[in-house]
Amino acid sequence: xxxxxxxxxxxxxxxxxxxxxxxxxxxxxxxxxxxxxxxxxxxxxxxxxxxxxxxxxxxxxxxxxxxxxxxxxxxxxxxxxxxxxxxxxxxxxxxxxxxxxxxxxxxxxxxxxxxxxxxxxxxxxxxxxxxxxxxxxxxxxxxxxxxxxxxxxxxxxxxxxxxxxxxxxxxxxxxxxxxxxxxxxxxxxxxxxxxxxxxxxxxxxxxxxxxxxxxxxxxxxxxxxxxx
Length: 228
Prior knowledge:
This protein has one helix spanning 2-19, and strands spanning 27-35, 39-40, 43-44, 51-59, 65-76, 79-89, 92-93, 96-108, 117-129, 132-141, 151-163, 166-177, 183-193, 198-207, 219-227. It is mainly beta. It has a twelve-stranded antiparallel barrel. Strands 2-3 form a two-stranded antiparallel sheet.
């Protein structure tokens, strides 16, 4: 049922883009995927259950601006589905890639009275030199979903191209939040590009907050993404 709902929703989101591929400025892409667990900031949003997601994205002709709409399955506040709208800009300065993004997320059919909406601000700085890559990510929300109030996530990521279609990466991050626990999370894994459209990912996620519940426990997560 979740997959059917997701497919119908993402098809509806993508239909305007697919209907006008020539007259619309910029380019459109559509991504559909899933994994054995929905991990965000190394904690589970599905309590260890599999999830599916979809997104339609617009990119300006010069590649500087982008926007999109997405949907994914979750298990939070009584909701099974989370939607999001986002806008961003990706300039390059002195060989360094910047990404500034603002996203509005909301959980459908959440428990009555639950805080089911959140606004997230993201800034990242990344650089690639040969097979190596590095990224520093900063995210902040003035009001999180559920009981969580303001929170901040800082993450450092390192990557390495092992082969033309195979890369490895590892990341460590720290989440500080009001009205909820603070924790450190990390992950490491490999990504294999089957072709230009299909990626497979195998990654271990873990945190130092194991006593806080199964959503913070370590897990090996396998996922795939296909882009149209």
